[in-house]
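Data card: per-record layout.
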Amino acid sequence: MGRHLKSDHDDGAVTQNRRAMEKPAPERIPALAVKPQRETGHALTPLWVVFGLAMGPAVALGLSRFAYALLLPAMRADLGWSFADAGAMNTANAAGYLAGALAAAPIGRRIGDKVAFILGLLLTAAAIGISGLTANFTVLLALRLLAGVTGAIAFVSGAGLTSAAAAGGSRARAPTLLGVYFAGAGIGITASALAVPPLLATMGWRGGWLVLGVLSLSATLYGWLVLSRAPEPSYGVHTARGGWSARFMAFKLVSYALFGAGYIAYGTFIIAYLRASEGFDSRSVTVFWAILGLSAIVAAFAWGPILARLRGGWGACATIGTVTIGAALPLLWHGPIAAYLSAILFGGSVLAVVAAVTSFARRAAKPHAWTAAIAALTIAFGIGQCIGPLLSGVLSDGPNGVRTGLWLSVGILMVATVVAAFQPEPTAIDDGHGLRNRR
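The structure for this 439-residue chain is written out next.
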């Protein structure tokens, strides 16, 4: 019997050795490939690190794109712009953002997401500040384009770093930390609300751009200080293809493009509308814009647990639907109460849309494809942003004024809400090598 047991043991060992020899070597992957922190036993990335990474959207969105709305009325009055001219500025910014989103993933692979993140922030801050030194339309257009390119690189790289930092922990951790990251735009909006309107009467729009440049440099410094504690993305020598499906994410891509076209008209022209139609002065504008920014920050924590429970496209559907209601309120009712409620709903959900879409991308793509999938969604978003401001600006120059352009925004957002609901949830299938194929 001893001989039989020994023989069985030897046969088992041989079989195991053969299986080990036949098992393919693990593939080295080139993009964001961070092991779940729960499995590796490493401590979870601290929240203050994600706040530092949130300086990406604080600069790229809050201080570069959204803050332009605060300066727009003064720039139109001083430079004699039409609403179409004003919209062209944000269309240039959106076109640059689209180009930057296309370049973000290749640049991240070449120089690393951390380097791409901090260089993008520095160049964006420079473009913002220099905008206060010229009144030339073409030069301002070029600076808006540059801020869009570099802002998108910082934004996409930062989102990839945050996705890595969000690994491990509870189910609600990833959407909550992504919400904190995107709420950085709310920090930028709030800072611009407190700094810019009070200075417009004495320093004009030129001084406003210079102040925004200083704020952007300060945010860049904080972002740089936390990079050493952010998880380092892993890049291998073998190129791994795939990892996500544009066809599967088609409804998400379309709805996100529509969202980009719809929300940007409100973000560009709402201050001009409130000043012209509701009689808002600098103090009222400061309160409105600060409420919008603070709502975005608070919503980062409020939406996280909700988005963790919503599957498929329902997270984007819920958040875009709330944005739509917020955008419609000042058009349906007059007075400051409707405007401030609009700021709460719009500000409290506009960045949650980005968190919902990015959280879905993390579920629909393999870890090495997160940055590529986020970049593709950002490209769709950028296409919508290119169309929205220019189209709304042209309509706003018509007989009914900026109100027409804002109603167009509401209509586009309603369509985006419906399209988002059709996105199915990805299913996970083990491919036998420890990886998860999303279909």
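Known properties of this structure: The CA atoms of residues 244 and 365 lie 5 Å apart. The radius of gyration is 24 Å.

See the next section for split statistics.
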